[in-house]
Specification:
single chain; alpha/beta; Rossmann fold; 4-stranded parallel beta sheet
């Protein structure tokens, strides 16, 4: 349900959904906010317990139902709160990235990265760079007005 809410939310013309690890990347985003680093406003964050617990179909569903981009961010390898969650995530997200073109979705609309809670400036750089990339690509052309493939 959170995916649909993040995609359907009115606001900016470009919609980017971010799945952030509770332990690291969400803290990094919070640090960037507390430090008042300038960030794009078109990212809608969904807080998840660990990227290793995230089903890659959540990202695919977001792109299919109207998101213009999806960013997944978790703990650095070997720093995962659950020991190996990000290793599982990396494997699954790589498969998803290679599968997106078969779904008619430009793989540049999807990105995953690792950001720790203390890396507010890195978070700001990652989200700014990805947002600029999505703005360059424009709205997701593979999605019709009802969130279904055209």
């Amino acid at each position: 349900m959170a995916v649909e809410n993040a995609v359907a939310e009115s606001g900016p013309t470009i919609r980017i959904v971010g799945f952030l690890c509770n332990w690291c990347s969400y803290g990094g985003a919070d640090t960037a906010g507390v430090c008042r680093f300038k960030q794009p406003t078109d990212l809608r964050i969904i807080r998840i317990p660990c990227t290793g617990r995230m089903d890659p179909l959540f990202a695919a569903k977001a792109l299919i139902t109207g998101a213009d981009g999806v960013l997944v961010s978790g703990c650095h390898p070997r720093d995962c709160h659950y020991a190996v969650g990000n290793f599982y995530a990396r494997r699954r997200l790589e498969v998803l990235k290679h599968f997106l073109p078969f779904m008619g979705i430009d793989e540049r609309r999807f990105h995953y990265t690792w950001v720790s809670a203390s890396e507010g400036q890195r978070w700001q750089e990652v989200v700014t760079r990805f947002s600029e990339q999505i703005h360059g690509l424009g709205p997701n052309p593979g999605v019709g007005s009802h969130g279904l493939k055209a």
